[in-house]
Design a protein that fits this description.
Blueprint: H1 2-30, H2 37-51, H3 58-79, H4 87-105
Helix pairs in contact: 1-2, 1-3, 3-4
């Protein structure tokens, strides 16, 4: 169950970051209301806070988080931007997830 909790926390962290960056994008690039900056800033604050919940060393968390972020960003591309990921996107995401798993769940030697 720890593996599922860790992955869920990474996904939640990635969503907070993506939303925090997507809302200013809507304002800057698509002419939406500047009020989107408020929930965007709150989402980025939640992203930073969620990173502190990971029990591993910060550098390890950031390295592993990158793999999960890539997968969540591709899911966002499909769900929000209506752009279906290509086969190379999927293969790349799987490689990133394997790297994340090795970093987070691999054995630690002193």
């Amino acid at each position: 169950m720890d593996i599922l909790k860790t992955l869920a926390l990474f996904v939640l962290t990635a969503l907070a970051e993506i939303i925090g960056c997507y809302l200013p994008y809507l304002w800057l690039k698509q002419g939406h209301s500047a009020w989107l900056l408020v929930p965007g800033a709150l989402s980025l604050a939640a992203f930073a806070w969620l990173l502190t919940w990971h029990p591993q060393a910060a550098g390890r968390v950031y390295a592993a988080y990158g793999g999960v972020y890539i997968c969540v960003a591709l899911a966002w591309l499909w769900a929000v931007d209506s752009v279906r990921p290509t086969m190379t996107d999927v293969v790349g995401a799987v490689v990133c997830l394997l790297g994340m798993a090795i970093i987070i769940f691999g054995p630690r030697w002193a």
